Every structure is written in structure tokens, then in C-alpha cells.
Amino acid sequence: MSSANDAKILQSFRFAGGSTGAFKSLHGFKKSHHTVPDAVNQATSAFLAKLAHEELAAEGEGFFQRARVMLEYKRKDLSLDVSAGTAVLTAKDFIFEIAYSLRDEDPSEYQVTRTLHSVRNADFLRTTECDGLFPRLFNEVVFTLAKGAPVEGVIDAVEGLKESALEVTYPSDYRNCTLSLPDVAAQVRFDGGELAMVFAGAAAPSQLWANFLELRSAFALTKNPVITGLVGG
């Protein structure tokens, strides 16, 4: 892939991963003063942001200091902003975000979403420093389509292929579809606007980027513009 294509794809590309925990395990939670949320709303979300601030600030500061040392950044190369429930590390090579939220399925738990995006150069993703800064932190890569595409059109395109290992499954309302290839160890989901590769386990950015390029090459072999367009082809 050319450097120009790399840069174009990276504009709409992000790595994502996360973790969960019990609300009452937060450092700021006091059993004698606080109660565990039983719903997700503006008030409980603000409560979470307040109680999680110490953990969020500490994690953000940790990434700031490691990035500064490992990547030899100067003061002007790096900044950290910690606000209500979110920390944003802005570097000359990338943006990294940490966000706390209550789980819709169980408000007594919180989830932490970590996202790496706005990577300026694919070469950065292949460095040992990048892998060392974000070791096995992400298990998902997401590519956002500039114009989107009908899910039904993607389904029809895959089902119309002859002698292809690419397979597709989908619900009856066609709200999304899942694509599978024998050599791709991930669930590949498409919802009309984004293509997500979701892996069973976390991996380093260099490996996830390589996996995305393998998927792109496999899609290119179909020579179908609908399918290749899903990954910037």
C-alpha cells in the first residue's frame, strides 16, 4: 500500500479496547456515603465522572510520562487534557483517549474505553515504541467509510461472488452483517457506516494494522467495488 493510501485510511481509522469494573471498586466510592447507580442518566454519569477522576487522571498521566520518555517528545509535542470522565492525550503522532461510562446492561458496573486515532503515519504503528506504549491494549480496529454503503448491497455483493472464501451472515432486518474469511481471525462487522474487526484477544497496534492490511488485500481479490470500498479500496 502506498504512503498516500496509508494516510488516507488512517484519517478514518481507530484502534479500540476496553475494560470493566464494579462501581463500588472506584477509589472515590465510600460505602457510608454513596450508593451504586441502578440507571444510566445524566446524574449517575456525572457521579461516575466525579468518583473516577482519580483513576482517570492517574492513567492519563502515566501514558503522558511514558510517551514523553519512550518517544522522546518535547513539551510542544505532547499535551494531556483531563475533563469529566475523559482524558485526551494529544501527541504529534497520534491522539489517545480514555473514557469512563456506566454500562447500559448493568449500571452497577463501569466501562473504560481506550481509543487510539488520528495516527499521522503508518510507520509509527510499526515501531517498537508504539507497541511498547500500547501493549495489548486494543482488540478492535474500526474503519469509517466516508460515504457509507447499504448493508443489503454488501450482502448481495458477497452472495454474488463465485468461488470465493468470503462468507456473510446477517439478521433479518439487515441492520448489519458479519463477514468471515478463513485466514482472518476476527469477526468483521459492517453496519452501513463502519467496518469493525473484532478479535478474541488484545494485540499490539503493529499486529492489528497488519491484520487490517491482510483483510484489505483479501477484499481486493474479489475485484468487486462494493466490497473493496469497505476498506478504502
For the secondary structure, the number of strands is 10
Please state how the strands of the largest beta sheet are arranged side by side.
2-3-4-5-1-6-10-9-8-7
Radius of gyration, CA atoms, in whole angstroms: 20 Å
Average residue-wise pLDDT: 92
Biggest sheet overview? 10 strands, antiparallel
Overall morphology? globular
**Number of helix segments?**
8
The class by helix and strand makeup works out as: alpha+beta
Any low-confidence stretches, pLDDT <50, length ≥5? none
Span of the ends, CA to CA: 10 Å
Number of domains: 2
Characterise the protein shown here.
With 233 residues, this protein is α+β, with helices and mostly antiparallel strands. The chain contains eight helices and ten strands. The chain has helices at residues 3-10, 42-51, 53-70, 122-125, 128-133, 151-159, 205-220, 225-228; strands at 13-22, 78-83, 86-91, 95-102, 109-117, 138-144, 167-169, 177-180, 187-190, 194-203. The protein has a ten-stranded antiparallel beta sheet. The longest helix has 18 residues, at 53-70. The N and C termini lie close together (10 Å).
Structure in a nutshell:
Helix content is 32%, strand content 29%. It contains 8 helices and 10 strands.
Layout of helices and strands:
Elements (H helix, E strand, L loop, with lengths): L2 H8 L2 E10 L19 H10 L1 H18 L7 E6 L2 E6 L3 E8 L6 E9 L4 H4 L2 H6 L4 E7 L6 H9 L7 E3 L7 E4 L6 E4 L3 E10 L1 H16 L4 H4 L5
Antiparallel strand pairs: 1-5, 1-6, 2-3, 3-4, 4-5, 6-10, 7-8, 8-9, 9-10
